[in-house]
Write a structure and sequence with these properties.
With about 450 residues, this protein is α+β, with helices and mostly antiparallel strands. Helices cover about 35% and strands about 30% of the residues. A hairpin with a 6-residue loop joins strand 12 and strand 13.
């Protein structure tokens, strides 16, 4: 009897469990609905492109002097200041050139001094010739007076023919001497002109010798190669013992010594697909737009779009996965380039890294550049998966209490909406249509519950 009572009790327990199970509807995990919340926040729609971290400019440094390298006091990665020595050449060859240039200059100056003395001597000769001419002219006046006096005496018979002939001869000699003095003056003046020409010619030789001397002095100084800018040494091409050729004298343009990178600014040239070009152009600052006729003028007239032209971008690099960096668009190139190996046209967008942490970015690193082409700040938003369609109208299903007396666990109500931008995670709610209401904090279905009869 006791065994039968135990058996009846067990049957009753099983029956009770079966009854409770029949009242509870089991839903496997894949059939359960999913919910999200209506929130208020920011939505940004990005476009991404990639490029390499670059220096503001790269300088290939060459020596203006020729010779053998005797010292290279820098290595790759070292930061150098403007005017800092980065390489030294053996100065012997340039010093010999300097000594020859100095000797040539001294010789040219000595010859110039001689030429100037010749000009002074010619000037003295002119003055002497003029004085002699004055003396002869005075003697000629006396000879003329004596001739006139003898001619008068001879006319009265008081002078002999011999006296008259002597007076006339003396006068002609005076005229000849005057002509000779005039020729002497002209000759002296021509000699002075020749001397002055020689001075000008020699002065040109002195100037040329001085320039050669100055160049030689500079070349001796340039045997110490100095950094032209504050920069990082990225490559060193020479080592002690190597012969280098002058960049100003060689036919090959000189021997490269090293390459420097000016990192006062860091840049990224991002390759942008043709399909995204227009949207990036719409957020670029006016001074970054291509300098094409009417493009900047037309963009400046759109006041609504002008407010969005900050040109701010976000950069990410694998070297610092947890960090993001800010940048600014500085130039958008108008000419597309065909991507090698494909038929895709891409455009280069020059971005300056403006972030205060930009010193961390290594040159040559791959950067992902994110352009925010559309954004909504502090907007009402729903999960993107919550956007559904009912009878041709887009909206969301809001979770409501189940209908009274219903065995359903969930209730729902369709609220038609007008949506804006979406970043894939959230979608902007611009307005609620008809008589619907949608408030911050409401729960909406991202996956709808199954209708009665859909499940066995």
């Amino acid at each position: 009897m006791k065994k039968w009572l135990i058996l009846l009790g067990a049957v009753a327990v099983v029956a009770g469990i079966y009854y409770v199970a029949r009242q509870q509807r089991y839903e496997p995990p894949w059939a359960q609905p999913k919910l999200g919340k209506v929130t208020r926040g920011d939505i940004r729609v990005p476009i991404t492109a990639s490029g390499l971290i670059r220096a503001n400019q790269e300088v290939e440094l060459k020596s203006k002097a020729s010779g053998r390298i005797i010292d290279v006091p820098v290595v790759e990665g070292m930061y150098v200041r403007v005017g800092q020595p980065v390489a030294r050449l053996d100065p012997d060859d340039e010093q010999r050139r300097l000594d020859r240039a100095q000797a040539d200059f001294d010789r040219a100056e000595a010859l110039l001094t001689q030429a100037k003395v010749a000009v002074e001597r010619a000037a003295v000769s002119i003055e002497s010739a003029k004085a002699r001419a004055e003396e002869i002219s005075a003697q000629g006046e006396i000879a003329k007076f004596e001739l006139q006096k003898v001619e008068e005496l001879a006319a009265r018979g008081q002078a002999s023919a011999q006296q008259l002939n002597d007076a006339r001869a003396q006068y002609r000699m005076s005229l000849a001497q005057q002509e000779s003095a005039r020729i002497a003056i002209t000759s002296a003046e021509l000699a002075k002109q020749d001397a002055e020409t020689a001075v000008a010619s020699q002065q040109a030789l002195v100037n040329s010798a001085r320039k050669t001397l100055e160049d030689s002095v500079q070349r001796v100084k340039e045997t110490t190669v100095l950094a032209p800018v504050d920069a990082i040494v990225t490559e060193v091409f020479v080592k002690p013992g190597v012969l280098v050729q002058s960049a100003t004298e060689g036919f090959t343009g000189g021997t490269p010594v090293m390459r420097l990178a000016d990192v006062s600014k860091k840049m990224v040239i991002a390759r942008l697909d043709e399909a995204d070009y227009g949207r990036v152009l719409n957020i670029s600052p006016l001074d970054a737009l291509p300098d094409m006729p009417q493009l900047r003028e037309t963009a400046a007239q759109d006041a609504e779009q002008l407010a969005q032209r900050s040109g701010t971008v976000t950069l990410m690099v694998d070297a610092f996965k947890d960090d993001t960096f800010t940048g600014r668009i500085v130039r958008v190139e108008p000419q597309g380039k065909l991507n090698a190996g494909s038929s895709i046209i891409q455009f280069d967008v020059h971005v300056e890294v403006t972030d205060e942490k930009r010193h961390k970015l290594p040159l040559g690193a791959q950067a992902q550049v994110e352009f925010t082409v559309e954004s909504a700040i502090g907007t009402l938003r729903v999960p993107a998966e919550a956007v559904k369609t009912f009878e041709g109208q887009k909206g969301v299903y809001v979770k409501t209490p189940p209908p009274p007396g219903s065995s359903e666990r969930y209730g729902k109500k369709f609220v038609p909406c007008r949506f804006g931008i979406s970043d894939g995670e959230y979608t902007q709610v611009i307005s609620v249509l008809a008589d619907g209401r949608l408030n911050e904090g409401d729960e909406v279905f991202t996956k709808l519950p199954e209708e009665p009869g859909e499940r066995r």
